[in-house]
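Purpose: get a first structural picture of the assembly so the mutagenesis plan has something to point at.
Setup: two entries, given in the order below. No constraints added.
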Amino acid sequence: MQMQRLLLSTYFLFSPERRTANMAASGGRTVGSFLWKCGNCCFNFNTVSSNLTRQVLSRQLCVSAVLHRKNLAAAGPEKFSEEFIKKQVEEFNIGKRHLANMMGEDPETFTQGDINRSIAYLFPSGLFDKKAKPLMKHPDEDTFTKALAVEKHQDRLRGKDLFTQDAKQISLVGSRWLLKEELEELLVETISEHDYARFIQLMERLLSLPYCSVEEDFVQRYRRQLEIQSSKQQVQPLQYDQHGVAYSTGDGRRKTATGTVLLRDSGSGSISINGTNYVHYFPVLQDREQLMFPLHFMGVLGRFDMQCSVSGGGHSSQAGALRLAISRAMLSFLSEGQVETMRQAGLLTPDPRIKERKKPGQEGARRKFTWKKR
Amino acid sequence: MLFNRSLPAPARPSSITTLDGSDSEYVDNYKYLGVWLDCKLSFQTHIKHLQSKIKSRISFLFCNKASFTYAAKHTLVKLTPSITVPSVLSPKPHILPTTACQSEQHLGQYYTVPPSHFHTVFPHGLPPRYQQQVKTFNEGCVMVRQPALELISHLKRADYSKPTLRYLLYGVKGSGKTMSLCHTVHYCSTQGWLVLHIPDAHLWVKNCKELLPSSYHASRFDQPIQASNWLRNFRTTNEHFLSKIKLRQRYVWTKRESTEEGRPLGELVDMGVSRVKSSSDVVGAVLKELRLQAGGTEGGFRLAVAVDGVNGLWGRTTLKKEDKSPVAPEELTLVHNLRKMINNDWCGGAVIATLSQTGSLYAPSSAYLPQELLGEEGFDSMDPFVPVPVSLYSEKEFESCYLYYLDRHWLQHPHSQTEEGKKELIFLSNRNPSVLERLCAFL
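Result (structure tokens, whole complex):
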């Protein structure tokens, strides 16, 4: 009678489990643990009294299961230690006995084939993948072997002191991944964009793992060095005039305006443009600020005298052309590091923007004709 | 302590032992009998200690310095010892008692025009941006510069029995010609001269809405509004002269109206202000009277004719007659009379003129020399004159202006108070006064 009650209660427990049964290999274990746990509770309950209704039983069991669930979560990740494996084996055996009882067969002669059949009967699964269907197997076969082997290997390495903590990083500064075209060239076959993106993803993943410096050669095969930009600048040597004053010239262009500058050292900061004073030539403050930018950036405001000549364009482009010319002329007076800072500030880059072409059918480069409804 | 007046400091002894065998300490300064003694036997340390004591006493005054007027601040500056002066209150701007006492040593320093003088001496004539600055700062401070000092020294030494000398201020745009002229005008008015200040001669040759044909002379044109405005300002400037000067001739205005001989000048001026139609002729009459009486022995006064933008009197106008033909400047009554004034055929005064490209008509913006702006005709009429060039700020003057703006908290940006900010200002303005003023307006 008690066993019948037990079976009915466990059957009630199982029914929600069956509905949600998309369990993997752990399915068997969980069932076993549940059986074991409810079995335990039932045994406890049996010791208390035997005249309780099924509802009370189920309520008690439900509560205990919930508590156990919470405890499982709080315990932390499982560690594959010997006791844990022993516990799993015990649970499996008890579960096997319960399963035999449920199917009405003899627990002593319940083989693995019988277990499989009964699990397939109790938890019918519509999944095609055999490995995805619920199973109940002895823990010793296959479940923990891999993890245990890895742990043993790691222990051996630790014993030999090969687990060094100082991880050498591959230096990626100054290099870039191969472009899609270069990769195609290397592999002598065409690659789609998705494949290339996947390749980059995998290489990045490889770099993110520890001890990736072991495979540095492999990674470097797929990277190219970037050229240092500042070495491209041609710095002309300083020239000296009759009085021994150093001077240098520079020219610049912006948008159809061209300007040349003669920069003289040990001056007072006077600037003449096309023969007139720069305050008179550039009445707009913005243009004078453009002239000031390279000198102010390097902190040599009152040092140089300048003679500039400029033609073409409007006032803004003339100011931009002169700015580039001044920066280029200043290069001969500066050191390598300062040249690099100037380049990074954008003072040595000629501005490539020009007036965009007017297209037919439009009023301007971008402006379309007024749209009339009729 | 080791006393030594020679330049290389001797090495410190490592340890000093007294006769008893105990160690004594080596110090650089020591206070003894109320005086701080120094290694170099100078009084520097003593003075420094005194200064710190004084500063701690009057520090509350420095904290509240923003609430003081400029005059009070300079008394404060004089209190502190001259060796170390707090940099904000450095005595570059300095109060000068009167314009007459200014001399070479005051170059670059500011002097304040007393507020009572402002409305009487300068009802017109100051540059508009300067007027705004006066309103903002609540005081009118003028920098003492070389051109104005030169002019004032000429005026002091000139012989007023000889025909009038003509002084011409010229310079690049924005270099401070009008301000120098105003400085000189202020000096003249403090000395008791009669000042005829024409704020801008260009105003008479352009933008005239009403051009009446003159009743006195058939081919000339009157400008009633401009003439009456000028007469009003003239009256404000020279109140005390108007009752003293008597007319020497009878002026007939209409059939019924005339001004008799011997009437005070003030009556004539009032008439010109009230009867706008004949104001241009009144201006002509006033100028004639003043010309006749300027160098006179009985009740003689000195006459200063200050004309700003004198190059507008020669050249072209933008006014048109009814048949759309252009009006020449000599066909305007006001211009005609003023030209007679500028001629050096009278004595007992001086003519101070300024060239101006800013309001001029048909003159290129790069022109600033007398030959370019006056033209042939103008140059011939002005010749001979004393040219006074007005240059841009020198380093000292720039420094003074910069400190003045800092002191008035006009330069608000923290970067403008650093050395680099000052260099930037120098670069961007090239030490041009008006450009600097416009630049600082942003900061």
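The CA atoms of residues 412 and 443 of chain B lie 6 Å apart.
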